[in-house]
Design brief:
alpha+beta; Arc Repressor Mutant, subunit A; two-stranded antiparallel ribbon; 3 helices; elongated; PadR family transcriptional regulator
Length: 89
């Protein structure tokens, strides 16, 4: 099971307002990519937890591979132009 916490998004520079976050979770749930895992009350507030489904893991894997190929293509173009970004050699 893969769990992503809201604070994990802050680490990678993503800021989501609650309406955006829950709208995205609703769409991901409707698409079968995430599923409701459990709920708990923390400091008097309901906290909902979601998990990636098997289909969600497959989609995440495919998207990760697509992004990896895009990064490689961009890095190859930078190298070919004689410019190197982000300490790449």
């Amino acid at each position: 099971m893969v769990r992503l916490q809201h604070r994990d998004l802050d680490v990678v520079g993503i800021t989501l307002r609650p309406g955006t976050l829950y709208g995205a979770l609703d769409r991901l749930t409707d698409d079968g990519l995430v599923a409701h895992d459990h709920e708990e009350v923390v400091d008097g507030r309901l906290r909902r937890y979601y998990r990636l489904t098997d289909q969600g893991l497959d989609v995440l894997g495919a998207e990760t591979e697509r992004m990896r190929r895009n990064v490689k293509a961009a890095t190859d173009r930078l190298r070919a132009s004689g410019r190197v970004a982000g300490g790449l050699a």
